[in-house]
TrEMBL record:
It comes from Nesterenkonia sphaerica. The keyword Nucleotide-binding applies. Keywords: ATP-binding, Nucleotide-binding, Transport. This is ABC transporter ATP-binding protein. InterPro entries: AAA+_ATPase, ABC_transporter-like_ATP-bd, ABC_transpr_CbiO/EcfA_su, P-loop_NTPase.
Length: 261
């Protein structure tokens, strides 16, 4: 079985800047990865490549068995669920939450035809309910709170029943209760029987849901360490990644880190 994602010596260059520098990253079916790293480390760039939204300057990217550059990305993208600010900015604020979700089934952002299949609408509504935002289904996207918007975006990312789910800082801007609800829902999602391979980019260890299996630590566009969470998420690796002495704590499958005093 081919890997879900196989990045081999991927480099992304913009002018003189190396956004990613010779990155290898392989995801097998059933794995759930967290990506951690300081601001500017290249996390979003890596996710954009995994989402078939950006091409490497050098190296190769194989996504769901297809090689980037040798496949029609418009056929590949519906197989990948992406929740990211880069997508959020393209969503028309006047569209209702339901339309924001249902239009993902057609690979568009705005409602462009009047009659959607009833079953698509039912699925979109179910996803909004699953993520606790069923009550705002008829509200324009622009009028939603940050937390509601995040959950609508996750519902949108799941609409096509993706084989690979990419979540770029889904917890950003959420209050404490919103974050905990998001962590619980994401944990339930990834531990479900038909869960897609998932990648979560976050700045905060508290946002790692139980059930995630692997971690990739990035710094200055390079991989510091990558592997099973239990072995790779260590105080030492975190300290190297963030260039600061950090102490990792773990309690019942949840993590946090503080500067060593
Ligand atoms: N077009 C570009 N030209 C030059 N530099 C760029 C360009 N796009 C991104 N960068 C830089 O590449 C680096 C990596 O950006 P990226 O958004 O991938 O980082 P990140 O790890 O997601 O950061 P953050 O945690 O702040 O969101 C940053 O320093 C950014 O300023």
């Amino acid at each position: 079985m081919s890997p879900v994602l196989n990045l081999s010596s991927v480099t992304v260059r913009r002018g003189r800047k190396l956004l990613l520098d010779d990155v290898d990253f392989r995801i097998e079916d059933g794995e759930r990865w967290v990506i951690l790293g300081p601001n500017g480390a290249g996390k979003t760039t890596l996710l954009q490549i995994a989402a078939a939204r950006m091409f490497p300057t050098a190296g190769s990217a194989e996504i769901l068995g297809e090689t980037l550059g040798g496949v029609d990305v418009f056929e590949l993208r519906p197989r990948i669920g992406l929740c990211s600010n880069s997508v959020a900015h393209t969503l028309p604020g006047r569209e209702t939450s339901l339309n924001v979700v249902v239009t993902a089934a057609y690979g568009v952002t705005g409602r462009w035809r009047e009659e959607y299949e009833r079953q698509d609408e039912r699925r979109a509504f179910q996803l909004l309910n699953d993520w606790g935002v069923g009550t705002v289904f008829d509200r324009p996207f622009a009028t939603l709170s940050e937390g509601e918007r995040k959950r609508v975006q996750i519902a949108r990312a799941l609409m096509t029943d993706p084989e690979l789910l990419l979540l770029d800082e889904p917890g950003a801007g959420l209050d404490l209760a919103g974050r905990e609800a998001l962590v619980a829902r994401t944990a339930a999602l990834v531990q479900g029987a038909f869960a897609p391979a998932t990648v979560l980019v976050t700045h905060h260890l508290e946002e790692i849901p139980p059930g995630f299996t692997h971690v990739l630590l990035l710094r200055d566009g390079q991989v510091v360490s990558a592997g099973p969470l239990a072995e790779t998420l260590t105080s030492e690796n975190l300290s190297t990644t963030f260039d600061m002495p950090l102490e990792l704590t773990e309690r019942e499958g949840r993590y946090s880190a503080f500067m060593k005093s």
